[in-house]
Amino acid sequence: MAIGMRPLSRDAGCYVIVTEYNRSIQGFLVGSVDRIINIGWEQVKPPPSGTGKESYLTAVTEVDGELIEVIDVEKVMKEVIGGREEAAEETIDHELSAKINHILVVDDSSVARNQ
Prior knowledge:
The protein has helices at 73-81, 94-99, 110-114, and strands at residues 15-21, 24-30, 57-63, 66-71. The protein is α+β, with helices and mostly antiparallel strands. Strands 1-2 form a two-stranded antiparallel sheet. A two-stranded antiparallel sheet has the order 3-4. The model has no long low-confidence stretch (mean pLDDT 78).
């Protein structure tokens, strides 16, 4: 429902996929699970350039000749439950931050990078 699909009924023989976002655990009710696969990071590719920055697509891969799309769960959760992109004042160590010249932030999630 969060990404514009019809909601699923709770008694439709569905499955719950458990995720963690922003130190909180959520369950996604899904209609079915086709299969669970393990792949290496070398098989994960960035989404096509035409998807744009507002897309829910964060990566793609190919399995058995099929294109698999990886959605940005953090983006979905931010839209569903809300969230801030700036740090809370009580989490900032001003003494330490005065000593730091550069910080490199690396993450595959734009939500995490902005936080």
